[in-house]
Design goal:
Layout lengths: L1 E2 L1 H5 L35 E4 L11 H6 E9 L9 E9 L10 E4 L11 H6 L2 H4 L2 E4 L19 E2 L3 H14 L9 H15 L4 E6 L2 H11 L4 E7 L10 H19 L1 H6 L3 H13 L11 H11 L9 H11 L2 H9 L8 H9 L4 H14 L9 H8 L18 E6 L7 H8 L5 E6 L6 H4 L1 H12 L27 H7 L4 H28 L8 H29 L1 H6 L5 H4 L2 H18 L7 H28 L3
Parallel strand pairs: 5-6, 5-8, 8-9, 9-10, 10-11
Antiparallel strand pairs: 1-7, 2-3, 3-4, 4-6
Helix pairs in contact: 6-7, 8-15, 10-11, 10-12, 21-22, 21-25, 21-26, 22-25, 22-26, 25-26
């Protein structure tokens, strides 16, 4: 199987940020467990940069709100000789400052980046009232040096153990140490950043794996935290490979709910058996040969697609496509959506493997296999455990049981990897926690959903205020996508956002009204005095112009609908449909050109019943192809 950036890009990689304040935290605090501050260890220091990194927003307003810098931290803190790391930092000023503590954003992955999300944070509700600090964690993003940089962004797991063992050797040869790349070390960096910027207390906004870092800080530095938002929380008390159980549980739940829904069951009969049979067929290979895209790859690709918001309704559609057509649609999606692009996979393996407990994770994986034997051949947990055997560093993470830090846990109702049950499990272990489950959202709802982002911003204005748990609407049953979507307004409304309906209206009006009106006006124009003097070239140009308006209108509607759900724009069409979609560009210009010529030069018009029938059929076909371009999009739930 291939692990790629998207494997955890679905984790919505985010970052960390804060604004400089006067003074420094002079108190000598005990070190974070596992990161002892021995005598002689270099102190962390922050250095502002005169310019920012390429690719960041360059508009004047954005520049005025940003400051870039580098946090210098020791790789090790245990007294052994160590090198200094350079961690990239961007500080964003609030749009309107009220003196609230700044927010440090902890990105996921591990191995993602934070600074790449600067555009998002500049406009986020969280930076309306708070300064924000974005930090690319050690070994990843713009921070230097990268860890295990020779491991490619997309790597086959069978090749990973050798690459990871070589990385550990090379890291030591370069003066580094694998022990420097753990969640404990990252948490110590975050605390160093707070100190270096002079803040006594900060807020944390943590996403996905970043919530593990936040929980370490809640357990070890609670006095420095004013409030914490955990977006798609992963409890540190769970084995890392509990995620394998969530993959199976989520897809089994989708298949079960589809079978219980009359329309879904009728549209996709016997879906579970056909889907698992398709995975088996992909996994089966000839001895000595490895398939380019096997059942593990297919299951991982499907799992990644379901990280996007509002995709549970289309899950049966996707599973059915795999059952009917094999891996080809998923390979198309992998290319179209960039699922093969990678993050810092060296940092991903280093940090992830550092917390793997072979006994606990192996036992959890065995439970999953025993409970779901049909799924077992397509899971990749065993290969991941073999990969982590090659990494020498191991740490045990502290658990923030009983933490009194005010905490808001935000979880997507349709999250396939950190389900709502995780939020309630973690909240039960904390002394001051509230939970927000966001309907129709998957991983990272506080990033992708306006209501969830607003709830996080409101909470951080006054985290200690005793208020009821926020709400973003009730979680209801899923309306699954089926081929009769065009006549099911409920699901159509679900899949179309604010841009979708106006775009559809414009396209429909253009296709159904503007085309015949333009033909009628053209005929009147060509019958006017002097029409015979309109050249053939002029007629052709007019035909192309008018039909172009018509076709562009319909394609504009489709483009807007594709933007609402890019998965189906790549996955929904069978291969034979692609040339059909070109027909609206071809038939209307040809028909209009012929019609204009026949009206302007009657002697060239078709004679007899056959010719007139051909003309009528051409006009009908041109209209039908345009309607197909519109309605096929709706039929796919676009």
């Amino acid at each position: 199987m291939r692990i790629s950036r998207a494997i955890l890009a679905a984790l919505i990689f985010l970052g960390v940020f804060s604004l400089a304040a006067k003074g420094a935290d002079a108190a000598d605090m005990p070190p974070i467990a596992g990161t002892s501050q021995a005598a002689g260890v270099p102190q962390a220091r922050y250095q502002a940069k005169s310019d920012c990194w390429p690719g960041l927003p360059t508009g004047r307003q954005s520049r005025d709100r940003m400051e870039c810098g580098v946090l210098h931290v020791p790789e090790l803190r245990d007294g052994r000789p160590t090198r200094m790391l350079e961690l990239a930092v961007v500080r964003i000023r609030a749009r309107e400052s009220w003196g609230y503590p700044p927010i440090i954003d902890l990105h996921g992955g591990p191995g993602g980046d934070s600074i790449g999300w600067t555009d998002h944070w500049l406009e986020s509700p969280l930076t309306a009232d708070h300064d924000m600090i974005l930090l690319d964690q050690r070994g990843a993003g713009l921070s230097r040096p990268a860890v295990c940089a020779d491991i490619p962004d997309s790597v086959a797991i069978p090749d990973a153990p050798g690459l990871l063992a070589a990385c550990a050797r090379d890291l030591r040869a370069a003066g580094g140490d694998p022990a420097g790349y753990t969640p404990l070390a990252i948490a110590a960096d975050v605390d160093d950043l707070r100190r270096a910027l002079g803040y006594e207390r900060v807020h944390l906004f943590a996403n996905s794996y970043g919530t593990v870092i936040a929980q370490v800080l809640m357990a070890t530095r609670p006095e420095t935290l004013s409030g914490v938002v955990l977006d798609s929380a992963l409890p540190v008390s769970l084995p890392l490979l509990d995620g394998e159980a969530q993959v199976v549980s989520f897809l089994e739940g989708v298949l079960r709910d589809c079978a219980a829904d009359a329309a879904c069951a009728a549209a996709y009969p016997d879906l579970e058996r056909r889907f698992l049979d398709a995975l088996d067929a992909l996994t089966a290979s000839q001895p000595g040969k490895r398939k380019r895209f096997d059942g593990k790859d297919a299951l991982s690709a499907i799992f990644l697609l379901l990280y996007a918001p509002d995709t549970r309704p289309i899950a049966p559609f996707i599973l059915n496509k795999l059952a009917d057509r094999g891996a080809e649609p998923l390979e198309t999606l992998t290319r179209a959506l960039g699922l093969a692009d990678g993050v810092a996979m060296g940092a991903f393996f280093a940090v992830s493997c550092g917390v793997v407990d072979a006994a606990a994770d192996g036992a959890r994986l065995a439970e999953v296999v025993a409970a779901a034997p049909r799924w077992a051949p397509h899971l990749s947990g065993d290969a991941f455990l073999r990969t982590c055997d090659a990494w020498p560093a191991r740490v045990e993470l502290p658990v923030p049981d009983g933490s009194r830090v005010p905490t808001l846990i935000i979880q997507g109702a349709d999250d396939p990897v950190t389900p709502p049950a995780y939020a309630h499990m973690l909240a039960a272990r904390l002394a001051d926690a509230r939970v927000l489950i966001v309907p129709r959202q998957s991983h990272g709802p506080a990033v992708t959903d306006d209501c969830a982002a607003g709830a996080a911003a409101s909470f951080l204005v006054d985290p200690g205020k005793a208020v009821r748990e926020p709400s973003c609407g009730a979680v209801g049953p899923t309306a699954f996508l089926t081929p009769d979507i065009a006549v099911r307004p409920g699901l159509t409304a679900l899949t179309l956002g604010p841009l979708g309906w106006p775009a559809l209206a414009v396209g429909a009006m253009t296709g159904l009204a503007l085309f015949p009106v333009s033909v009628w006006l053209s005929i009147r124009l060509l019958r006017a005095p002097g029409a015979m003097f309109v050249s053939t070239v002029g007629q052709g140009a007019l035909a192309l112009f008018l039909s172009g308006i018509f076709v562009c209108g319909s394609f504009f509607a489709m483009a807007q609908l594709f933007r609402e759900n890019p998965l189906l724009s790549a996955f929904g069409f069978a291969r034979w449909v692609e040339p059909v979609m070109v027909l609206p560009w071809v038939i209307p210009p040809l028909v209009l050109l012929a019609l204009f010529r026949w009206v302007g030069r009657p002697e060239t018009a078709p004679q007899g019943a056959w010719g007139k029938s051909w003309l009528g059929l051409s006009l009908v076909l041109s209209g039908l192809t345009a309607l197909f371009a519109l309605t096929h999009g709706l039929a796919l739930g676009l």
